[in-house]
Amino acid sequence: MAQQDAQNGGSKNAAAAATVSFVAVKPQLLVEAPKANVAILFFKVVFGTEEVGRTLNPKRKAKHELPLILSA
């Protein structure tokens, strides 16, 4: 019943009870295939990122890069 009230906003303390916190963020970057290499090189030079993975989907002809960005 309390979960239903929290979902429907029926309880006055629902906002306090339904606090959500995040401990990590997984950013995703979409870049057109011809520009992917240039974009990754830019992120390596400017932000000091490290490439942790690369995916090529031949059907869609899109490259997906996974740069490692350290947060402060």
Tell me the layout of helices and strands.
Blueprint: H1 2-8, H2 14-17, H3 36-47, E1 50-57, E2 62-68
Antiparallel strand pairs: 1-2
Protein name: Glyoxalase At5g48480-like N-terminal domain-containing protein
Domain Glyoxalase At5g48480-like N-terminal: 28-72
Organism: Glycine max (Soybean)
Please outline what is shown here.
Helix content is 32%, strand content 21%.
What does this protein structure show overall?
- This is Glyoxalase At5g48480-like N-terminal domain-containing protein.
- Pfam families: At5g48480-like_N (PF22656).
- Residues 28-72 form the Glyoxalase At5g48480-like N-terminal domain.
- By secondary structure, the protein is of the alpha+beta class.
- It is built from three helices and two strands, in the order H-H-H-E-E.
- The protein has a two-stranded antiparallel ribbon.
- The termini are far apart.
Low-pLDDT residue intervals, each spanning 5 or more residues: none
- Count of alpha/pi helices: 3
Spatial order of strands in the largest sheet: 1-2
Order of helices and strands: HHHEE
The termini sit apart by 41 Å
Question: Which class do the helix and strand fractions yield?
Answer: alpha+beta
How many strand units? 2
The largest sheet, given as strand count, sense and whether it forms a barrel, is: 2 strands, antiparallel
Q: Give the DSSP E fraction (strand runs of 2 or more residues).
A: 15-25%
Basic shape: extended
Would you tell me the overall average pLDDT?
69
Helix content: 25-40%
> How much is the radius of gyration in Å?
20 Å
